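Table S7 (text form). Paired inputs.
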Amino acid sequence: MSTTPSTDVGLMLIQLIAITIPSTVVLVKQLRQSDNLKWRFRKLSFGLVGSCIALLITAAIAVLSYFVVQLQLPNTIYSGLLLVILGLLPLGAFIAVLYREHRKEFGP
């Protein structure tokens, strides 16, 4: 694969997305363990985590779309890229389940 400035930036964005996901999961774990937050802040925190995941998925789709349009990659690479995006969806579902659990326990 020939390297261009756009390709380099795209790869850096993919790396950034990959680095951001574990820190998001750690933040969710810390949110679950915090007992002294009021419901309003818990709700806000879950909204922020949810928007973070949505933005990560959107960024991944945008960068991978660039790769699909601009580069002729083997089908196995495209399959792997698709699996990366699909792997973020269960994380979003997990956050939704945690939110419902927290709402029942701490909500109004």
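Next pair, protein 2 of 2.
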Amino acid sequence: MTENRTYTYLNPKVALMGAGCVKEIGKHAKDLGATKALIVSGKSKHGERLALDIYRILEDAGLEGTIFPGADPNPTDTSVMEGADIYRKEDCNIIIAVGGGSPMDCAKAIGIVVYNGGLINDYEGVGKVTKGIPPLITVNTTAGTASEMTSFTIITDTKRHIKMAIVDPRITPDIAVNDPELMVSMPPALTAATGMDALTHAVEAYVSTMATPTTDAAAIKSIELISKYLREAVAHGEDVRTRDMMAHAEYLAGIAFNNASLGYVHSMAHQLGGLYNLPHGVCNAILLPYVEAYNKKVVPERFADIARAMGEKVEGLSHEEAADRAIEAIRKLALDIGIPSGLKELGAKEEDLELLAEHAMQDVCRLTNPRELSKEDIIEIYRKAL
């Protein structure tokens, strides 16, 4: 942190947490003036079932809805424009997203186009959404992305094959819902990937150049909870209490990065997702220890704190030695929950590394990384992570 800086903290107006809380969304939708909702879900059968459950909750509250099961696993500009057309044709006046980060990002982007016009590609970057979005309720069914409560949306540009980061306080959802009963059906691999996504959010926010005592508190508590509960959530996903703890962990990580931003892990992961259509959480999990091995050299004391939060014994160690323990703890957690060992296993190619690095250097998430990285540094990190 530096002196003489002011801070703005962005969070949803309302956050609903705990088993069964999804049943309250009808009332909250009415409070927001809703009459008909566009319900955005993923393209899978599971996504459509979730959307139908939300439709019935709204119906019981006397509200109408139309389902758009069009969010790709990495939501695209084309699906956003399709959803915006449906919103207008169906005369909707609220958007409700249900699922993981993909439908929630898609929903935010649909809202941008509906209220601001043009193409979603026009809004890449920071602070370009001048007219806000329609009322938005986000029902989260994974414990990782925190898209249910952030001012970020990540959309794939299908022509350039890159992920666009769109960041604006005006797209922060009105109501964020984290009901652990909706998370018990997550398979182990998805639980692992989304949990490591949350850990990446917390770590990057804690070492961000925009970190504050408020974001630090959220990030460190998130790291503690993930270190304690993620292995259990992967092994015993039916345990509602464990799911609830992971929901709190990912929400705290969201508070941290929504206000302190991120770093080069996300800048680099976005490019992998855009070029190869890879799962975001897995890309983050693989890259995290490699990027932070670079970052720890400039803020070792911060990584010593992370080591403590992950349960490492660091008494008597220097900051540098404790920082090494943090990196190893991250690697061990990923290994324990079955994260792939390298990017090559996902299909990444050596010949694409320069292009990936060039695109990563344009991603807005890099701006708050604690260490300046050159293109050569980024290529080397990608190479190590292969």
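The mean pLDDT is 96.
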